[in-house]
Amino acid sequence: xxxxxxxxxxxxxxxTLFSQEFKREKYNFNSDWKLKTGDSQNAESPVFDDTxxxxxxxxxxxNQEEAFEKDIEHHTTGIxxxxxxxxxxxxxxxxxxxxxxxxxxxxxxxxVNGQKVGLHENGVMGFGFDISTILKPFPExxxxxxxxxxxxxxxxxxxxxxxxxxxxNFNANYGGIPKNVFLHIxxxxxxxxxxxSNLKTTGVYIYPTDINIQEQSxxxxxxxxxxxxxxxxxxxxxxxxxxxINGKKVTSFSGEKIILLPNETKIIKASKxxxxxxxxxxxxxxxxxxxxxxxxxxKVIDEVATKTGFRKTEFKNGEIWLNxxxxxxxxxxxxxxxxWPAIGMSVPPWLSDFSxxxxxxxxxxxxxxxxxxxxxxDVESCDRVxxxxxxxxxxxxxxxxxxxxxxxxxxxxxxxxxxxxxPSIIFYESxxxxxxxxxxxxxxxxxxxxxxxxxxxxxxxxxLDSKEAEYGGEMLxxxxxxxxxxxxxxxxxxxxxRKYWDEFSPPFHKEGxxxxxxxxxxxxxxxxxxxxxxxxxxxxxxxxxxxxxxxxRVNSGGVNIIFSDSNTHHRGESNYRTSGExxxxxxxxxxxxxxxxxxxxxxxxxxxxxxxxxxxxYADKVVKNIYVVSTASKVKLFINGISQGFGKRSNEFLFTxxxxxxxxxxxxxxxYDEKGTVLSEDVKTTVGDPAEIKLKLTTAPKGLLADGADVxxxxxxxxxxxxxxxxxxxxxxxxxxxxxxxxxGGIAQGPKNYILSKDIPVENGVNRVMxxxxxxxxxxxISAKAKGLKSAxxxxxxQSITTENxxxxxxxxxxxxxxxxxxxTPKTPSYTIKRNPVNILNATSxxxxxxxxxxxxxxxxxxxxxxxxxxxxxxxxxxxxPSMVNECVIKLTGWRSKxxxxxxxxxxxxxxxxxxxxxxxxxxxxxxxxxxxxxAIELIGVNTEKDGFSKIVEVDPTKELxxxxxxxxxxxxxxxxxxxxEFYEKIK
Length: 988
Description:
Blueprint: H1 2-17, E1 25-28, E2 33-37, E3 54-56, E4 60-61, E5 79-86, E6 96-101, E7 107-112, E8 115-120, E9 127-130, E10 142-149, E11 155-156, E12 161-162, E13 176-177, E14 181-186, E15 189-191, E16 204-212, E17 217-228, E18 234-243, E19 249-254, E20 258-260, E21 265-274, E22 288-296, E23 299-308, E24 313-316, E25 319-322, E26 325-326, E27 329-335, H2 349-361, E28 366-370, H3 376-385, E29 388-392, H4 402-419, E30 425-429, H5 437-450, E31 457-459, E32 488-491, H6 529-544, E33 557-561, H7 590-598, E34 610-612, E35 623-630, E36 634-639, E37 642-646, E38 648-650, E39 654-661, E40 666-672, E41 678-685, E42 692-698, E43 704-705, E44 711-719, E45 732-738, E46 741-745, E47 759-761, E48 766-773, E49 778-785, E50 792-799, E51 836-838, E52 840-844, E53 864-865, E54 874-892, E55 898-899, E56 901-906, E57 909-915, E58 923-939, E59 944-945, H8 967-971, E60 977-985
């Protein structure tokens, strides 16, 4: 009787426990913080007096106002304290409470109610702590405090090792808590968080298999790590609900029922075939919400909502496949800080979308974050806007060893776990430069363990002949492959300010003029806009020429460094890097529009565009070259309707019209195909004198939030009497602000870059400024005036948000819309076949005959060379069948410096005779088509050595992968050295 009564009570108790469902909550923990620079004794104590400390809303780096005012090397470093008092919600008792930081910089000790709960030091990744047993229930007050050190030379306490990526060249040091913080409250039976550091947990993992793009179906898998911290075993039911982008239920399914013992952790799985799926794609950020639900006794005890997308990837034949369509990489190598003036990286989520979506609008499809993992806000932003990502862990410029390699491995592990549900991540980057095969194997094993089904290639820069890396590609050169995809991880390193149109426009900056860089003229780092854009068009053509569809061995594209001007290592006249195709306020330069023209397609051009560089407001008698970027075969220029003839075409997309005399009115460029059909056009007109100021407001979709962290972006233009922007205006604008907001300002060339100044000039007729909300809502008025111009005023309201006891349910970015503008992945092929490769059966030579295969082995780190004597400088290729070869594509060792005088024979008939040009990789040699089976390459003279790209250098100038600085190569003037050779015939 007593035994029966015991079980009855136990069952009743268990039933009571779950009779009222507890809803898991994620709280915005960004409000009500205080900070103080410098060390403070006993600041972790709950009774410490912080009344004099500065009040801030996170995310907030304590030195963020220095962004773009100071050179990266001079960012303030040292000790800073952050403190916050808060209360738990009513009724929270006997629950689990976790604190999640998306990241701090660099190393910090975290205290709760005076007790040390842990340490985090890598300065990059999200991390968390279980603080359940330390917190006091409502209405008692809790205190959290962090002591953070962002010293450039910070050393890991346990190992006394510095972090390789804490680097003064590229990793802007915005110290403190520059990212979001969240509080999670769960039941004692719960799904874990994807925070491996400290918590050692992996969270939820959602992925598709058996993807059928044509039928729009896939098996969706939901795996979740579950932990039971009750004192009794629990029988757990696992349910999954999938909702579409509008919150409508798509399907539901259940997994296995399991028994979880006290303090036991298990992974529960469920899967189902789902039809009518919308696949995530470039410019189509279609996201689903997958709810993973735990039930005990039929009652919901935990529910996690994961926003994710489904897409199919393949990496084969030297190509990148997305949803069964080949895509060539076209995008940017962007600094991970992705910062803005006076606020650094700590921008609201909508502004991350504004910046990242701009890449997509410029027809970029991938962002390669540089050196360190991007913060979660940018990762999620790329999901929404439909921008593919390459995600690094942490690196500087070389492989590591010892403790620094262990740090990199741990960071990659944490980053994969944290971001594996984000569909926009397509590549995991194991190193900013090549790493050893053993290290690559180690990184690959981490991917295979924690993200075996994510459809992501893991590799590194270079790694051209690696058997472990699944992709590769050099920094500056053009690589091709018939196996794994090779794409350039950064190219076109030139710099140029938005302020300078050309030499004929105010302030009449002479092209290339500026301070020396490393005691040498820095022409490439002090460009005018037109020259910077021209260089971009030249560099991209190298990759476009070898794109998929041009042969068996192809190039998979590349990313231009960088997208927006960055507060990092610089070479030009400013104290920040100006390589961006947009400036620091994301105002486009001509390079942005040039890329938009050249990149409009997955591989081949799919929409024709034309862009006239510059403006059409000059002084009388100005004679200048006009440059047009177009996808047309030929471009004609018209001034006031009068033809100026066709432009001189170079590098596929660039058309030059020499010595055009300016005349007030209209300039029009019209692009035609070979048959004379109009494909596209662009028009610019002469604008009248500056007359007034125009202001334009941009905020989050729901307006400016009065949370102390949100910002509003205000564009200021100087326009003529008809409202048209004056492209050569550099008027100084004086602003004033009224209402509950803080002035952040913008950036321009001048004293301290005008950071935080309320007097700031427009550049080329336009600029942008920002204001930041306070925690008080109300009307904000911005006024702008300038000498001789009609003033402007802008008024708007900031919206109040509810924060109670330091907690808010308004999670940053949760309700931002997805960008679906490009639509789903097209079902048609992304390219047409341009030419047919002719296979090489074998090759023979009088010199190094056993190594002739290295000249056609699809490995750019091998070569065939003769012995240095011009008598043996010849090689003969036997084709797999007699062919009418009309092109030879060849990569010659020393490609950027050597010129080889050669002749090419087809079955003994000379079909080419000339000197090979220098290049950044491959050259195309036209041949007289002759039906032949054997093709011979002969050196017919002394080769010469002169670097054709002396201003294009690696970060380490002593390391050149094309061996052009090899002294033995320079001296051996009778050498013929072939890295790769290909033969092509016309499509019949």
